[in-house]
Write a structure and sequence with these properties.
Layout lengths: L1 H6 L17 E6 L10 E7 L7 E11 L1 H8 L3 H4 L10 E9 L11 E5 L12 E5 L3 E3 L6 H5 L2 H14 L7 E5 L4 H12 L3 E6 L4 H6 L4 E4 L5 H4 L4 E6 L4 H9 L1 E9 L4 H8 L1 H22 L3 E4 L6 H12 L7 E6 L3 H9 L6 E5 L2
Parallel strand pairs: 8-9, 8-11, 9-10, 11-12, 12-13, 14-15
Antiparallel strand pairs: 1-2, 3-4, 3-6, 3-15, 4-5, 5-7
Helix pairs in contact: 5-6, 10-11
């Protein structure tokens, strides 16, 4: 389980640069303690760590803000991250390769790249220079800007993990995305449509036109319609980006036998925070196993908690689709990185409903 693996990590970085970056220090947004947007600090002259052999140093040009960033800032995952404070938040990045580790073979200095870190990374991307593993990066599509590119990888890889790695969706299947208006939902709709699937989705009224424009064949306004009455037939896979009791019930009841229900809202981190790693992780494992057995026997379906992970094949396909204009995550607003507190505030208060990106000059 990824949360247990994260508990064994440290923030140490070993030397291994093949070529030197132009700077040994940089500007970085630091999270010194958990709290509201006001706790975030922009620090200057922060040391740029040396690289491990398979790592890449990226001169960031844009980084997006994900819901996970807000949750981590507020204390989600504190059982893992509190001993490692101060943290650097941020998962997505788009920029140029500034240096590569000694064993990196697929990328070279000067290339424009984009990619995303694993959810448990301690040194995130809110910085002039971000460090990612080679398989967490690929060439940036030339048809999109750094701002547009930075909004794509974390959300798209989360959707890819669920639909392609777990459910293994195929041409002609029916897919339901619960909560299609968010970044992961939009990415899932586009990935499923590109795979030749028929996609239905639920969303708010403000997102109806957007989800239909990116490939959904049916969009149900959950605020005014009964989802179970509005949807006809059954699905091969359901991706639930909301993950509350009601959406889980609806999603499972709409699946065909042999189908896959996948939720982004697994309980591992929450239980680890509540009871500590020693009790929380075994408790979460037991809950997941119980639900998997329960739904396998009661409904004949597979049940999963899903999350983003690095996938070189998936990232390359995401790049190809983005290059072709078949995968886009709209950016609603940008902020300079120096206005990180304001950027987090507008996301937390939902003043800006869509994607927010930090630009780094």
């Amino acid at each position: 389980m990824w949360w247990l693996a994260a508990a064994r990590r440290t923030s140490a970085l070993r030397p291994g640069l093949r070529s030197l970056s132009s700077s040994t220090t940089c500007r970085t947004v630091v999270l010194p303690r958990f709290g509201g947007p006001e706790v975030l600090e922009v620090r200057h002259a922060v040391a740029v760590p040396d690289l491990k052999p398979r790592q890449v140093l990226v001169r960031a040009r844009a980084v997006s803000i994900n819901p996970l960033d807000l949750r981590m800032r507020s204390g989600y995952g504190r059982s893992i991250f509190e001993p490692l404070l101060p943290l650097i938040l941020g998962r997505d990045v788009s920029g140029e390769v500034a240096a590569v580790g000694a064993s990196v073979s697929s990328l070279s200095v000067g290339q424009e790249v984009f990619g995303a870190l694993h959810p448990t990374a301690v040194r995130g991307t809110y910085s002039d220079y971000a460090i990612l593993a080679e398989d967490e990066l690929t060439l940036k599509p030339s048809s999109v800007t750094h701002v547009e590119a930075s909004a794509i990888p974390f959300a798209a890889l989360t959707a890819w993990r669920a639909l392609m790695s777990t459910a293994r969706i195929d041409n002609g299947q029916r897919i339901l995305v619960i909560g299609g208006g968010g970044a992961v939902g939009l990415a899932a709709i586009q990935l499923a449509a590109a795979a030749g699937c028929s996609v239905s989705t639920t969303c708010g009224s403000q997102s109806i036109e957007r989800v239909l424009a990116v490939g959904a064949e049916q969009a149900i306004d959950y605020t005014t319609e009964d989802i179970e009455l509005a949807i006809k037939g059954e699905f091969n896979a359901v991706l639930d980006t909301i993950g509350i009791q009601e959406t889980e019930r609806v999603g499972i009841n709409l699946l065909k036998k042999g189908g896959h229900y996948m939720t982004l809202q697994g309980e591992t981190a929450a239980l680890a925070d509540r009871y500590g790693l020693g009790l929380g992780i075994p408790a979460a494992t037991a809950i997941l196993f119980k639900k998997q057995i329960q739904y396998r026997y009661s409904h004949g379906i597979e049940y999963s908690w899903t999350y983003m992970r690095a996938d070189a094949e998936g990232l390359d396909e995401i790049r190809r689709l983005s290059e072709a204009g078949k995968l886009k995550i709209p950016v609603e607003k940008t902020f300079p990185i120096t206005q990180i507190k304001e950027a987090h505030e507008v996301k937390e208060k939902r003043i800006v409903p869509g994607k927010v990106v930090l630009e780094i000059d």
